[in-house]
């Protein structure tokens, strides 16, 4: 499908006919400026669809787009978007945009746990989005951030509470 071509992975997705990428293909993609530019354009396009703007291409920093209310309504209503976001996050990691992963996951954790604008995305953000982040250290930081904002904190199951309390 359209999303597979924009955000290819090294694993099988929902489309059984689509062949997973090889490590060699990923290396070739990452060396091609044209492919990487196209990838970034596709990422910005999808962010726009979800009501999100890429503020800084160096860091991957994000903010709500002007049309965020209408787009978040769509995100809340249609759960298939959560699978697409998981795919995009995994692909960001494959393509070397690990900082982008962190910003996108933190964006969704903030919107679901702090702002409470995306209640129907919360489970996916905690169960799937968080665990696409490649950097163990950054993943721990995000889990701690989620734990800090999760209500009730005693029901948080994504990390051991004793370690989360001591985390610095």
From TrEMBL:
Pfam families: OGFr_N. Coiled coil: none annotated. GO terms for molecular function: opioid growth factor receptor activity. Signal peptide: none annotated. Residues 3-165 form the Opioid growth factor receptor (OGFr) conserved domain. GO terms for cellular component: membrane. It comes from the Eukaryota. Belongs to the opioid growth factor receptor family. PANTHER family: OPIOID GROWTH FACTOR RECEPTOR, OPIOID GROWTH FACTOR RECEPTOR OGFR ZETA-TYPE OPIOID RECEPTOR. This is OGFR factor. It comes from Nesospiza acunhae. The gene is Ogfr.
């Amino acid at each position: 499908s359209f999303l597979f071509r924009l955000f290819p992975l090294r694993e099988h997705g929902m489309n059984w006919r689509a062949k997973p990428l090889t490590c060699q293909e990923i290396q070739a993609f990452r060396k091609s400026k044209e492919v990487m530019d196209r990838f970034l354009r596709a990422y910005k396009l999808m962010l726009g669809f979800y009501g999100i703007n890429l503020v800084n291409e160096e860091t991957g920093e994000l903010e709500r787009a002007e049309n965020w209310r209408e787009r978040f309504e769509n995100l809340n209503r249609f759960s298939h978007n959560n699978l697409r976001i998981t795919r995009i996050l995994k692909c960001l990691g494959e393509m070397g945009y690990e900082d982008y992963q962190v910003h996108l996951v933190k964006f969704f954790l903030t919107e679901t746990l702090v702002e409470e604008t995306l209640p129907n995305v919360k489970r996916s953000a905690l169960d799937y989005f968080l665990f696409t982040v490649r950097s163990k250290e950054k993943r721990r930081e995000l889990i701690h951030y989620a734990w800090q904002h999760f209500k009730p904190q005693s029901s948080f199951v994504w990390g051991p509470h004793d370690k989360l309390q001591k985390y610095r």
